[in-house]
Specification:
Layout: E1 3-10, E2 13-25, E3 35-37, E4 47-53, E5 59-65, H1 68-73, H2 79-94, H3 101-113, H4 115-123, H5 126-137, H6 147-158, E6 160-162, E7 167-169, H7 173-183
Antiparallel strand pairs: 1-2, 2-3, 2-4, 4-5, 6-7
Helix pairs in contact: 2-5, 2-6, 3-4, 5-7
């Protein structure tokens, strides 16, 4: 890719978004669809592709945007979005059905350290959860169920490690979100 930006997911864990110019070529004779690739020299791109890399190094296409400024800003997560992510994660914990896996995991942390510590641990995952949503949602071309009611509970169960002390991101959390986006 031509450019990249690094965004923090949680303290000590970062995700790199890469972006580069793309050009849509007309279909060749006998082909029903065109192809997308780098623009020819001297011709401006049609759009900019945004990518995340899986742990095996493959660039996974996340979205296409109109220009380089939008591509560069793609990883900017506003305070409003972070607040919404934190509230949605906490809502998932608070509304987990009694006896469900999520309720059992949360109750273990809550009974050991109290609700405030649980809430703080879950809230600290807000940025990682939002980045996971970007990876899975893929600009609307991947996973498309509701962020708050479906994605957040899934994220807490599939992308997080729970122990008696807290909840944290699993090492493969981004690959798990990218895989969800491919299946969506």
């Amino acid at each position: 890719m031509d450019q990249s930006i690094t965004i923090p997911a949680v303290p000590g864990v970062h995700v790199t978004l890469e972006y580069g110019p793309r050009f849509e070529y007309a279909p060749a004779e006998g082909e029903s669809r065109g192809r997308v690739g780098p623009p020819p020299d001297g011709i401006p791109p049609h759009f900019w592709g945004v990518y995340m890399r899986s742990s095996d190094g493959h660039a996974v296409h996340i979205d296409d945007v109109a220009d380089e400024d939008l591509a560069r800003a793609y990883g900017e997560i506003s305070e409003d979005l972070l607040c919404d992510s934190a509230m949605s994660l906490w809502e998932a914990v608070c509304t987990a059905l009694p006896g469900s896996q999520l309720a059992i995991l949360a109750d273990t942390v809550r009974s050991t350290h109290g609700s405030a510590t649980l809430r703080q641990s879950v809230g600290a995952l807000a940025r990682g959860c939002h980045i996971g949503w970007i990876a899975a949602h893929k600009g609307g071309n991947g996973y498309d169920d509701a962020f708050d009611w479906e994605f957040c509970p899934w994220f807490l169960l599939e992308c997080c490690s729970w122990d008696d002390n807290a909840v944290s991101l699993k090492p493969d959390w981004l690959d798990t979100c990218l895989a969800l986006g491919r299946s969506g």
